[in-house]
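User: Run a structure prediction on this.
Assistant: Running it now.
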Amino acid sequence: MRVLDIVLNPSCSEERREAFRDFFAHDKPDFLDWAKQLRENSIHLQNCRLTFVDSQEELEYALQDAHVLVLESLRVTERELAMAPSLKVIQKYGHIVRNLDVVACQAHGVAVLTIRRRANIACAEQAMMMILALAKRLPELNKVTSMTRLREAGFSPAPFDRRHTPSSNWARIPNLDTLYGKTLGILGLGEVGRDIAVRANAFEMRVIYSQREQLDPTTEQSLNVQFVSFEALLSQSDWLVVQLPSGPSTHHLLDAKAFKLMKKGLRLINVSRAQCMEREALLEALRDGTLGGFALDTLWQEPGDDDDELLSFPNVILTPHTAGSPRQNGLQDFEQMVHQMDAALEDVAAG
């Protein structure tokens, strides 16, 4: 959300401006011009003073003078609203508002705005791409279409007797898979996890999930998902998507004990953070066949190493932290938020 400092604060430091110009350069070379135009096109947010907070305590202090609040995970309840006499608009950086008391906001006359983040949608697409690629053995089969290349890849291609049989899979590739009817487990059904569930339903997969708190029945029904225990998630899933933030509560959640509980041949997908998985335990699960495949977008350290053992497994996909890309996803999110907040302040001024 520090992008808002570039957009809305004309006194933003040159160091931050340059850092974000570099961050967006490969997708948006004119980022600083974009930010300037977005600021100039807003009416009520020009030249505003921004305060960034990292804790609930800092939030409570900053709310005393705030007119607009943009937040992701910090909570706003009746207590916080009572500390914010000037607050008119809350913009959630996302669309799940479980950390907001919406009823209390309405009672205080505070508008609540949400956004379905495009980068989250992109992450869900990346997860499904990885699932499909592993199911169809795409990393091993891409451009391996000649007899020579197939043999070099370890396969035993041979034409069939076409007088009697079709020619399908003349390369004789074993262990190809179909998603239909398989069980997808999602560890952490937040915004990205829910978008993954929607896409898995389109493939007619059974979707189960586990997290600290079970969703309400209406949300579960709308997503066609079933809540199970952590242990059941590991033992029942054919595919497991880890969608957790990094932090003390999730660090090495998937450890050696967890991998031993997994269904044999489970394929593991992670487009969130690698730190929730114990690396050596994961490598051992690949070595002994506990894992039938693995895909990861954010490595334990970035950039990765040329001699990373994970690169030696044919059933492993590694991508360089690209799941939320392109940058236009985030830019469109911020543009939408600024327009929404500006319009909401216009409504307040008119009313």
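The mean pLDDT is 96.
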